[in-house]
Amino acid sequence: MNQKIEQKSKVRIGLECHVQLATKSKLFCACPTKGEDIPNSRTCPTCLGLPGSKPVLNKTAVDFALTVALALNCKLNREFFFSRKTYFYPDLAKNYQITQYEVPVGEKGFLEIAGKKIGITRVHLEEDPASLVHEDGAKSSNYSLVDYNRSGIPLVEIVTEPDMSSPKEAREFMDSLLNILNYLGIYEHGVSVLKADCNLSYAGGNRVEVKNVTGFRAIEQALLFEEQRQKAQASKAGVLRETRGFDAQTGVTYSMRKKETENDYGFIADADLPVVKVDDLWVKKIKSKLPELPEQKALRIAKEFGLTEYDAKVIAQSKRLSDIFEAAGKIDSKIAVRIVSRELLGVLNYNKLSLEDTKVDANGISGLVMLLKGGKVGDKNAKESLIKYVLEGILPEKFLEENKLLIDSSEIDVKGVVAQVVSENAQAFSEFRSGNQKSLNFLIGQCMRRLKGRADARQLQKELEAMK
Ligand SMILES: [Zn+2]
């Protein structure tokens, strides 16, 4: 079995994903995690790391970490504690980061993507360091500014087994993970930051880690570069075990240092923080609050709205998309599935946008589905209004009304237009009479053009059939 997998892919990829948790206050102090963008305005002695300050654990952050661990099928540790990871860098003034090393919140879980289980080694909680600001870019600035607003924001770190066999699969894993975090409501798109350390080894060679890559695209790019670099290197001197950085602008990884070992960090238990004991009642509470996750949602909406398994999975891929679908599907599930899973996703893909970049919501899409159901708008104009909605945030109803694209049968002389088109296209009409589908489409197209799309194609076909 292992040999089989080995033959299929020579690449093994593991990820360490760091996700900021959407708590109101920081992990060990009461400073807010969000607010005005004034550097060092959300700080106190604890998150500045001043001597004598004492950390106090934020229970909500622990709740969130337990939630993530459960959603990723991990075994929960009922007793865990925090450790100090020693390192010297300006982003951590107290010279150590409070993290978990010996006993994490949860371990030995998995996340299934496209039928394949990716092992989750551990899920643990730690604090984010401060951010370093380089005014003229990291390479050209001759000084660094430190902003401690980020210092102490809770992070959950999700470490995977090296189970992914291509950069594409790593990307799919991240997509799936983010989707679950969105469902759990502990991650805020556009606000929370997702970063990863990625490791890749080629053909059983040395493992190379690429540190601190921010964003999905960059992670996939860094892995693609490493795959090619290690492939070339493997046939020469071999791959060196090391830690590398990634330059997102050039898409290239570069050597930072020879890989340090965990021992170099000198972990010691943090005596300022208590041992956390998770009793049955606490676990029960977290479990009762676990929302429906993508897989369960796909099964339910497939049954409830009569969707194909494929459509249900596509829609359940995103919480926001499925919320939109469920609202619109109550009006007409067939039209809703077409608009949501084909038209809307088509427009987003074409414009390389994600739903989160737009103002599209359940209200706007439901309005459009209602118009389509009532025969108030033709398919072409419906699509046009959807494009405007995605790109400019103009509600479809408003766009169609303002541009006089709604069908009002009392105002429009459909019969008259059909008769005129037939008399002007006698040849096509006689071909249609002898059963030519292309001629029918041509005639409908001519009518539509004259009616500026304010007609239903099925109605036009009926009128044409009646004239046969
Ligand atoms: Zn603070």
Please explain how this structure is put together:
With 468 residues, the protein is an alpha+beta fold. It has three domains: 2-192 and 260-287, no CATH class; 292-402, no CATH class; 414-466, Arc Repressor Mutant, subunit A, CATH 1.10.10.410. Helices cover 42% and strands 19% of the residues. It has 17 helices and 16 strands. The protein has helices at 2-8, 45-48, 59-71, 167-184, 216-234, 280-289, 294-305, 309-316, 319-329, 333-350, 362-373, 379-392, 396-402, 414-424, 426-433, 437-450, 457-466, and strands at residues 11-20, 75-76, 79-80, 83-86, 96-99, 106-113, 116-127, 131-133, 145-147, 154-160, 194-202, 208-214, 242-247, 252-258, 268-269, 276-277. It starts with a helix and ends with a helix. The model is unreliable at 1-6 (pLDDT under 50). Zinc ion is lined by residues 26, 29, 31, 43-44, 46-47, 152. The site of zinc ion has 8 residues, from α2.
Quaternary assembly: single chain
Strand order of the largest sheet: 2-6-7-10-1-11-12-13-14
How many H/I helical runs? 17
Mean pLDDT over the full residue set: 90
Low-confidence stretches: 1-6
Q: What is the β-strand count?
A: 16
End-to-end Cα distance, whole Å, is 66 Å
How helix-rich are the residues, as a percent range? Answer: 40-55%
Strand proportion, as a percent range, falls in: 15-25%
Q: In terms of structural class, how would the helical and strand content be classed?
A: alpha+beta
Major sheet summary line: 9 strands, mixed
Q: How many domains make up the 3D coordinates?
A: 3
Ligand inventory: zinc ion
Tell me the overall shape.
elongated
Radius of gyration: 28 Å
